[in-house]
Amino acid sequence: MPKKLIKRYMPDHKAVRDHRYLRVFGDLLHDPNLWHLNRRSASGAFAIGLFVAFMPVPFQMLLAAGTAILARVNLALSVALVWLTNPLTMAPIFYFAYKIGAWLLDVPPRNFNFQLSDEWLVSELGASWAPLLLGSFVLASISALAGFLLIRGLWRLRLMQHVQRKKRARARREGPHAG
Q1: pLDDT digits (tens, 9 = 90+) for 120-134
Q2: Rounded CA gap, 37 and 73, in Å?
Q3: What is the dihedral of CA 12, 17, 22, 25, to 10 degrees?
Q4: Which of 124, 138, 140, 164 could form a disulfide with 54 if both were Cys (CB 3.0 to 4.6 A apart)?
């Protein structure tokens, strides 16, 4: 995977370390392994960030950061990927997760008539929590595995291309009569 491409879009580690919600981790944020970018740390960060992004839980950034610290993978990447579910994307993603969960549980999906009230949220969540959680877990698991494998594969492909370029350059330098 092109390291420069990931670094271009990755948040600055100082900004992540100083984020008001992540200060709870204190000195744990000073572990240099949390800020390295290599195949292991990037693929692990993608898995964690994507998994947490698809889970309908509050404080996703804290959950992703804590898991990244435990797994010693790139913290900034893990936290940044959580923002796939943001105020614009959250409703369609979790509705899709609900539909998947309802299909897996073989229950008819409910029609939602959205109302901005606590009563509506409690009643609808009470009736829909099992399909939502199951669908979210399935989406989270699939996306985490796919992200992990994709980053590993792309990183390996990029490494193989780099090795091939070096071999070709060496062959050009040595000329046609070498060997």
Answers
A1: 667 777 777 889 899
A2: 8
A3: 140
A4: 140
